[in-house]
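Example (one chain per record):
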Amino acid sequence: MTAATHVPEGPALRPWLRLACAVVPVAATAFIGSVSTQAEIGGWYAGLNKPWFNPPDWVFPVAWTVLYTMIAVSLWRLLGARPLTGPSREGWRLSLGAFLVQMALNAAWTPVFFSAHAIGLGLIVVATLLVMVLWTIRLTWRFDRAAAWLLVPYACWVAFATILNAAVLRLN
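Predicted structure:
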């Protein structure tokens, strides 16, 4: 008889491969975000009307450094929770797929908002990102609750970013 959820006793991937698979997509997303914002912070972004609750510019890289670290650890844990066999393996693949889609949306938002100056399209991307992060948390919960909890501050920050993006759109 097969259990509904079979989580292996040890990670299904070799340690270095698992670490690389967790760090590379997150580092690539962080790099894209950094490159897309650097030239725009003092120019275009500085000239926008912003709401009273807009944090100082230095808060964003600090927050994202902490969040990207938590996201990478979450992905590392999820990769370690891959079922070796059984019906739950498809659920794990869906969880991993959702994780990667939300990372792609995360990587897309910064160039859309900052490089393309597309505030409205940025709002669509960040709102979609929020939905995907929440869905990723829900799917990941089944396989590794700590991995899911590590994404909760990220969801909160993306919710704040969605509200901020909407306010910037309204004011400009």
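Caption: The mean pLDDT is 91.
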